Amino acid sequence: MPDEEVLEEGVLNPIKPEVQDPLLKSILAENDALPVEAPSEMEQAAPLPDPVDEVDCVVIGTGAGGAPLLARLAMAGLKVVALEAGPRRDPTQDYATDEKAQHFLFWNDERLSAGQNPVAFGNNNSGTGVGGSTLHYTAYTPRAHRGDLSLFTDFGKGVDWPFGIEELEPYYEELEHFLGISGPTPYPWDAKRRKGYPLAPLPLNGAALLMQKACADLGIKTSPAANAALSARYYQEGIGWREACTNRGFCQAGCNRGAKASMDVTFLPLAEAYGAEIRSEAFVTEIERDAKGHVTAVVYTQQGEQKRQRCRHLFLCAGAVETPRLLLLNELALTSGQVGKNFMAHTGMQVWGTFDEDIRPYKGIPGGLISEDTHRPADADFAGGYLLQSIGVMPVTFASQMARQRKLWGQPLRDYMRSYNHTAGINILGDCLPHESNFLELAEEKDGRGLPKPRIHFTAQENEQRMNAHAEKLMRQIWEAAGAHDIWSFERYAHTIGTARMGLSGDDAVVNADGRAFDVPNLYICDNSVFPSALSVNPALTIMALSLRTADKFLAARQRLDG
């Protein structure tokens, strides 16, 4: 999207045309010269109602960042309110096994993409509704590795996290057992874990079986992936029984069975059981402060009406696009100059092949097999690493990738799609280094609410390009060993990361190690925006772990003050 718009039919912000008629010019000039009268008392906008009740905490966002801490705060006896921009839905009634019908799960407001590798949004990177992006995530839940938090120490590039992996390990363990993670025990790349996964792995789909055999032939270790979908009926503390996954494969279209551990069937019911209030379709626009700079209230729109909620503490958990957007809109926590900076997106190169076998890529969980042998490849010419995943794919998604990458359209695309059931893919999920050219800013162009749209600049740097090249070569070798023909690659970038990173000092970070803003004492940020580095694994489990850790740090500090 260009920075400057030109005048053309249908443009969102057309240039104001110059008046040519002399008489009309003089009339307009006279009108402009008239004194402007102050609006009468009746014409003045009425002030927002100020609710008498002041809650302990407001949480903005109910995804992987907001939901766990909402439950933790409610269980501690605090009066908490969550504001979610999207609606509340009933999975058993509203979720269809149909990609197009489930478009409502995604954050479909336009986000402007810039840079040499503009990031795709919508169904790629964000969600809306009570449960956030977890409503359509594929539920991959591997833990981060120790080295993922110390990139600068290990490679002299990027930045380190302000704490070590030992701070997250107890929360990883708690989450795996609360959510009911299905996975291998022992875990091949971390055999020393104190506890194994509570459930056995989910069945491998066609792509996973092909990848498993080919990797074995090439000497690459693989394992069924850790996934937050139940391989058996599971009793969840505080929730009750959840039913097992039926392997229908449409995880990204929402789980209508409740087998996938999205926040709407796990932490959010628990939070409400302990008194938390969740207000859906509540779009936050303003964050109010007092003379000392403390947050005092949040203003939001719900069903066309503006409302205000007073609070003692604010937890901003809206994701790595909407979180910095809100901060920039409200000129909040900007002292470090880092809000919107350091945007990262996981390298997600995919390699596809066509097989003689009947694969049926829509069956089974989308990613059944994993390899972390590539976490630190011996022959790497880049910092960090990546993991390998087998992937299934839904038909509309696959057709759109064919159109984008191979430029097929019309009859050629229809002809190729006849081989859809014989298609299998592998992709990577890899590190991305922060870079000054990758950032989020507010655009001049306005959205339907009259607010500036976010514009995200992203260009894959040399490290990401080398990682993609290394991974593509390896994945092609795997599919060649598996007997694939018509092998092709699709370069993509997944997840939104950074933009409000945590650190040891307010000079180069927005929040401290506990998630508290350096320059706003009662503001906490808890989502993937605070990640100092991208990690070489899927982010969901780490976001949830950070959420619980942030809640515990906040409660401990509050107890010290009260004591």
From TrEMBL:
Domain of life: Bacteria
Key words, A-Z: FAD, Flavoprotein, Oxidoreductase
Gene3D superfamilies attached to this UniProt entry: FAD/NAD(P)-binding domain (3.50.50.60)
GO molecular-function term, one example from the UniProt record: oxidoreductase activity, acting on CH-OH group of donors
Stretches assigned to the Glucose-methanol-choline oxidoreductase N-terminal domain: 126-347
Residue intervals of the Glucose-methanol-choline oxidoreductase C-terminal domain: 434-546
Coiled coil: none
A Pfam family assignment: GMC_oxred_N
Family, similarity comment: Belongs to the GMC oxidoreductase family.
Protein name, per record: GMC family oxidoreductase
Organism in which the protein naturally occurs: Hymenobacter taeanensis
